């Protein structure tokens, strides 16, 4: 099955609304592609101006986080329904920074995944191991636990439309990148895990990204791997080089 590549920029806590609009203008002609889905996952305050800025282009907008309740006394949170109404199509769930800094557990992330799907958003579900876990040889055990926990109660048809992002924590923002072989090995393992949980058709349909210091210089080699369907890009998504990652061939 030929899976369409998807390259998503995770802006993290960068870009004021005015800076975000400027960046969209800078990237507009650089990220044009008929072969790759392009997503800007932006801070909440930037969502509305970015949705407006990318109208008429090939770019979709994603959020970096959301809550699992539709509304209520949850000061500071944003619901899936709010995101959809604002024009958001994707949402990052379970990034290692959310898991680590904000102590988001798999039971919470499972609720977020199900709520995002219910609202019509495409979850970009993140998973990944620490350097200590890799050195202990438990990388796949850990990632399989994350995937199985986060997808409890999620149907095969729902999984087929999702994106899973493998991001080794030790390679996020460090300049270190997993070797092509390491990245492909884990992405292949994730696909095998999905096949065990659901079936081969579901495993072949779900798109799996690699994230962790993806750059213009390594994108082509990474994305050429049979189980890597694009990238979740951090710092490089804030630069003109993001266009080179999107048009990696």
Task: Walk me through the structure.
- This protein has 249 residues and is α/β, with parallel strands linked by helices.
- The protein has a single domain, classed as TIM Barrel (Alpha-Beta Barrel), CATH 3.20.20.
- It has 12 helices and 8 strands.
- Helix 1 packs parallel to helix 2.
- The longest helix is centred in the C-terminal third of the chain and has 18 residues.
- The protein is globular and about 45 Å long.
- The relative contact order is 0.16.
Supply the key terms.
about 15% strand; about 250 residues; TIM Barrel; alpha/beta; globular; 8-stranded parallel barrel
Quick overview of this protein structure:
The chain is α/β, with parallel strands linked by helices and 249 residues long.
Question: What are the SSEs and their pairings?
Answer:
Layout: E1 5-10, H1 17-27, E2 36-42, H2 47-53, E3 59-63, H3 80-86, E4 90-93, H4 96-101, H5 106-119, E5 122-127, H6 131-136, H7 139-150, H8 156-160, E6 163-166, H9 180-197, H10 200-205, E7 207-211, H11 219-223, E8 230-233, H12 242-246
Parallel strand pairs: 1-2, 1-8, 2-3, 3-4, 4-5, 5-6, 6-7, 7-8
